[in-house]
Amino acid sequence: MVLITSSTPASWPSSSPLRELLKMLVKSGNSEHESLNCSKVFIPSVFDNGSWQILEPIMFVEVTMPEEFHGTVIGQLNKRGGIITGTEGSEGWTTIYAEVPLNNMFGYAGELRSMTQGKGEFSMEYSRYSPCLPDVQEQLIRKYQEEMGILPDQKKKKN
């Protein structure tokens, strides 16, 4: 089996690496070189004409705080695109479990300290990859196109 990995051409919407794009079984008589040449024709066709999505890492987040801050912390996790998966409470403390996109977790430590008067703490670990929301995907593509100078032609405004 040959795993085809390739960096994306500049003409594609994002420069992100392709993850598990194509696995090919090399039949007897076919060399790895022949399979790679075939993929150079096949991969662009699939990417240009197929369905694809940009994936983002989703983190499993565990937040512990005094129970008086429970509602505020849940609200902030929701604002960050989090999905609450569970809560526990004991002796005046609450633990919230959630899944949140990694990109939305930047700056959370300081925000949590502010919300909980310095009493809250959190940990996070990788959970999985998930397709980006459509608006996030459009922002990523637009940013990449701006950086590469390949924005689609914009209509000129008439005065």
TrEMBL record:
GO biological process: mitochondrial translational elongation
Coiled coil: none
Domain of life where this protein originates: Eukaryota
Entries under Pfam families matching the protein: EFG_C
Chain ranges of the Elongation factor EFG domain: 53-140
Gene Ontology CC: mitochondrion
Entry's localization field: Mitochondrion
Listed InterPro entries: EFG_III/V (IPR035647), EFG_V (IPR035649), EFG_V-like (IPR000640), Ribsml_uS5_D2-typ_fold_subgr (IPR014721)
The entry's keywords: Elongation factor, GTP-binding, Mitochondrion, Nucleotide-binding, Protein biosynthesis
Record-linked Gene3D superfamilies: 3.30.230.10, 3.30.70.240
Classification via CDD domains: mtEFG1_C (cd04097)
Main location: mitochondrion
Gene Ontology molecular functions: GTP binding; GTPase activity; translation elongation factor activity
Protein name: Elongation factor G, mitochondrial
Species: Papilio machaon
Taxon lineage: Eukaryota, Metazoa, Ecdysozoa, Arthropoda, Hexapoda
